[in-house]
Structure formats: structure tokens, C-alpha cells
Amino acid sequence: MTQEENITALALKLKELALARHVTVGTAESCTGGLIAGAITAVPGSSEYFLGGVVSYANAVKTKLLGVPKEILNTVGAVSGECARFMAQGAAKALGADWAVSVTGVAGPDGGSAEKPVGTVWFGLCGPRGVEAHVRRFVGGRAAVRAQTAAHALSMLVEALAEAE
């Protein structure tokens, strides 16, 4: 299965679970620039559960629309668990969604550092159980990192909804 086919399959599974659980979903994206929301809305009927997404590529947008404190951005940076948690929580609140996923990372080919090399992506998930974040490191070029990020974010939502009652 190609990455594109995997993303489509995950988006279809998300639809199935969201409708069965009667929940709504939202996104907050930085390094993927709307790729996750695009995958979700490529599925017919997504308006029944997908409320929307915020593409917060600039730090000012993370602060203004998602409520990420400037102190977080100035101390630990946008590519951090703290930022990912605030982004997910901010998206859920702004959109009124039951669940929200966020991504913030370094897609490359430039912008990496020793601490945060290219391919480093933080994921946030906000839902009825609270807010969590974790990091993944992907390999490949910019397009590959973005696709892997979108697939992982969708799989997080699918897994969370599958475990939800």
C-alpha cells in the first residue's frame, strides 16, 4: 500500500469511527500546511464530523488563533510537546470539537538543528481524556516527512476513537 493509499484508508476509518461514536474532529497544523484536513475532507460526508482546521504556520497564528503562549514559543520553541499540546487544545476549543490533533515539526530540507533535526515532529491530541503529546522522527525528503506526519496524525485519531466508548 502506498502512503497515499494508507492516508486515504485512515481517513475512511476515521469517518467510520467518528460517525459511530457521534463525535466531531478538528485539526491544528503547522508543518503539514493543511494536508491532514485535506485528507479528511477528501472523504465524502466528512462535513458530518469534521468541523475544520487551523493552519498555523507562523508563530503569531499559533498564539492568536490557538492560544499558544508566547513564552512557550520563546523558550522551548514551536517544535515542542508544549506547543503541540496547546495547539491541540486550542483547536478543540476554537472549533468546538470533541477531538483535535495537532502537528508541529521540521519538514526540511532546512531548519533542523542538533536537538531538532529535520524530520522531528511533535503531535498533540486533545479529547475527553485530556491532552497528550509525543514526538516522532521521520526520514526522507520534505514531501515524505509531511506525508508520514499526516498518516501518523490520522492514525492517532483512529486509535483514540477506536479506544473511546
Corresponding CATH architecture = Alpha-Beta Complex
Beta-strand residue fraction: 15-25%
Structural class: alpha/beta
Strand order of the largest sheet: 2-1-3-4-5
Oligomer state of the chains in this structure: single chain
Biggest sheet features: 5 strands, mixed
End-to-end Cα distance, whole Å, is 30 Å
Number of helices: 6
- Could you tell me the mean pLDDT? 98
Number of DSSP-assigned strands:
5
- The tally of domains stands at 1
Order of helices and strands: HEHEHHHEEEH
List keywords for this structure.
about 160 residues; 5-stranded mixed beta sheet
Structure, explained:
This protein is α/β, with parallel strands linked by helices and 165 residues long. The protein has a single domain (3-96, 123-128, 147-163), classed as CinA-like (Maf protein, Alpha-Beta Complex), CATH 3.90.950.20. It has a 5-stranded mixed β-sheet with strand order 2-1-3-4-5, with helices on both faces. The chain has 6 helices and 5 strands.
